[in-house]
Amino acid sequence: MTMSRDTTRNKYLIFFRNFLFPPREPIPAIESVNALAKLRDEMLEFGIFPFLNGGTFLGWYRECSVIPHTTDMDIVNDSFELTLIPKTGFKTPIDLFLMYKEFNNGTENRWVGGLTTTGVKYKYIYPEYDPFCAGDLMGHLFWITCTPEQKIKKEYGPYWYLDENSSKYIWNAAKNSIENGRFTREQMKTETYNEYKI
Questions:
Q1: Cβ burial, residue 49 (10 Å; 0-12/13-18/19+)
Q2: Distance CA 121, CA 182 (A)
Q3: Residue 11 lies in a domain
Q4: pLDDT for residue 135
Q5: Which domain range does residue 172 map to?
Q6: So what's the pLDDT on residue 7?
Q7: Beta strands 81-85 and 177-182: pairing type?
Q8: What is the average per-residue pLDDT within 29-57?
Q9: Measured distance CA(142)–CA(123) in Å, rounded
Q10: According to the model, what pLDDT value does residue 195 have?
Q11: Does the pLDDT at position 161 exceed 70?
């Protein structure tokens, strides 16, 4: 069976999303990576070992830098998601995802969570992580998987090397995402999304 996306519907959804939530300004690469490295260092002081994830990981692998039109940085810790915004300089949002481990039918999976503004929760499923390697992102070392292309293909599909503008990327349509429940309207107002200034 061949499945294709309804491009008319996708155009409508992108327009609606951009109307309700205007796209953020692309981040400055050097300042943003410096902020990410500072957060990494602070986490290391507490014995927490974060690694690159999502678009930041893809940018490291594909661009050897930050994706030029991205609007945030992503790291994972062994999910709820925290968005951290520096108090000074460019206000680069850094999404910190926590990674969960679960066993299904004798297979170990790792996953991080995602949440839409309407309360729909998603799981992004990853294969068991191999031992970690280090990767240089603009002069800063970060932990990464030792099999980056395998992980990138799992999330972005076989055409991961084709650049897609971040404003048109539909994150909950990732190849490795599945719906995972929903928060109520009340939970969305009081429990689910907070930004912390760092």
A1: exposed
A2: 5
A3: no
A4: 93
A5: 21-197
A6: 55
A7: unpaired
A8: 89
A9: 24
A10: 59
A11: yes
Q: Mean of the pLDDT values across residues 142-160?
A: 89
Number of H helices, E strands in the chain: 5, 11
Query: Can you say whether residue 125 is alpha, beta or left, with left for phi > 0 and alpha for psi between -120 and 50 degrees?
Result: beta
Q: Compute the CA torsion angle 11, 26, 36, 39 (nearest 10 deg).
A: -80
Residue 129 lies in a domain: yes
What is the value of pTM for the model shown? 0.69
80: amino acid identity, one letter: F
Higher-pLDDT residue of 10 and 114 is 114
Give domain status of residue 190, yes or no: yes
Tell me the C-alpha distance between 198 and 94, whole Å.
10
- How many domains, in total, are found in the chain? 1
Output the pLDDT for position 50.
87
Q: Does pLDDT of 163 surpass 80?
A: yes
CA distance 145 to 92: 24
The answer to whether residue 12 is domain-embedded is no
Separation between Cα atoms, residue 93 and residue 25, nearest integer Å:
11
Query: Which three-class secondary structure state does DSSP give residue 162?
Result: coil
